[in-house]
């Protein structure tokens, strides 16, 4: 069996290896096998074997060459009957009609009345971050008995039960140091 081509070998080297293989007359590593017809059995055995051919469709009305690609003219939008065309209108007049000055924008700002809203200041504490809000099982919207639970949910439930029982005897480590 021939070795695979190396990264440094050129096209000439590959053609030389191919001619050596063909001259040696060795059996190829791949064998072509034609599959038989599953449903018909030997009903189609009188037909000659399949040959490579192409179906060519000839249409009498069409030319041999496709038409040249010519870009289509740009499409223009039709104006509605009540509006004037943009080229008839002066651009400055159009800006004057649609543009709002900054003073017009600023005068339309309406502030919300916050006099009746209670302000809750954070409660000062000695902790750097606020306490974490833990949701109860009732507010999660799904009861524990509604069907199968995931493995993750089962593990979390087992840990919560273990934490509720308290530490076991093996987990309790006596404090040997002096009291503070």
Automatic annotation (TrEMBL):
Pro residues bias: start-end ranges: 64-74
Domain of life, per lineage: Eukaryota
Region (Disordered): 34-94
GO biological process terms on file: transcription by RNA polymerase II
Protein name: RPAP1 isoform 10
Species annotation: Pan troglodytes (Chimpanzee)
């Amino acid at each position: 069996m021939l070795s695979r081509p190396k990264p440094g070998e050129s096209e000439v080297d590959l053609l030389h290896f191919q001619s050596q293989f063909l001259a040696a007359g060795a059996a190829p590593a791949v064998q072509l096998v034609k599959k038989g017809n599953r449903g018909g059995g030997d009903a189609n055995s009188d037909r000659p074997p399949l040959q490579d051919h192409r179906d060519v469709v000839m249409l009498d009305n069409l030319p041999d060459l496709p038409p040249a690609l010519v870009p289509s003219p740009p499409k223009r939008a039709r104006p509605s009957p009540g509006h004037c065309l943009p080229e008839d209108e002066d651009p400055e007049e159009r800006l004057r009609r649609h543009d709002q000055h900054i003073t017009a924008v600023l005068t339309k700002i309406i502030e919300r009345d916050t006099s009746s809203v209670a302000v809750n200041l954070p409660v000062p504490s000695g902790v750097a971050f606020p306490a974490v809000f833990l949701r109860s099982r009732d507010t999660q919207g799904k009861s524990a008995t509604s069907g199968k639970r995931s493995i993750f949910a089962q593990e979390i439930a087992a840990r919560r039960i273990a934490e509720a029982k308290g530490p076991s005897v093996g987990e309790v480590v006596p404090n040997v140091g002096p009291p503070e």
